[in-house]
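From the thread on structure requests for the teaching lab: each student submitted one protein with a one-line request. Submission from student K.M.:

"Model Zinc transporter ZitB from Mesorhizobium hungaricum, tokens only."
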Amino acid sequence: MGYDHSHDHGSYSQDHDAGGHDLGAADKKRVLAAAVLTGGFMVAEVIGGLLTGSLALLADAGHMLTDAIALGLAWYAFHLGERPANGRHTYGYGRVKTLVAYTNGLAIFLVALWICYEAWRRFQAPLPVLGGPMLVVAALGLAVNVAGFVILHGGDRGSLNMRGALLHVLGDILGSLAAIVAALVILATGWTPIDPILSVLVAVLILSTAWNLMRAAAHVLLEGTPAGLDRDAIVNDLQDNVPGVREVHHVHLWSIDGARNMATLHASLKDGVDAHVAVDAIKSRLRAGHDISHATVEIEFDRRAEDGRPREAVRGVSPQPRHLH
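Reply posted by the TA:
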């Protein structure tokens, strides 16, 4: 005998509360403002990099170009995430934000590799660099990037999409700082190799952070167990603390967007236990003790629903003969 109980008897998107919606709308505006700032100054930095001959400025401009595109994608992901679930996408569009976060991490990774390649070319064939104009452009770029970072920093840092956007702007800040330091060294000493050296340093820092973002986003896309959740510990907790639960198995834990945890599980109950009461107790325990707000619980008594065999047979004990009357 089995029962299938779906959490809230509704779609995933219907579970979002008003606070979560307001936070998402605010993040959407923050990302759009940062995209406009970044894209606007990127043009000025490209011109500055070409006029001064600075790889640091061109590298930062290239990074800002990918950032403007990435921030635009992040904004669009928030826009799609507001759409309700439908018959084709029953969980809604929340995972689009995770997909964009992964794409952003990949884009940063590729840009960092390009910077390293260009730096190697500059070492082989050094070019003259105009330190004064380079310093002015880099300082203006730093001001713009810091403004973008401040705008984004007030958003939801638990969101992979916002983390990706912040990572892009943080990379721009590091690039601008590197360009400023390189310009000062060139003005003081005339030593132009500092320009590609600092560009590579920034690229290495960006590579590490981009890799971590890609891993986190890929983990969500592959429906891995969310950070902070232990499947075995959850099983033991339910079996030990929910009255009437004999056994918990087939537990699956995942997250749609990296911020909200979900679960499905089978619970075998002791004879005489009210299935509805047990389901409510299990879900309450998952919410309060494990931050799992959306769960589907399948109840079993004398048989496992997935194969129809008696519980005793599953455990290796021969079932008692049943007589037909």
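TA comment: DSSP finds nine helices and four strands in the chain. The beta strands are 2-6, 245-255, 261-269, 292-300.
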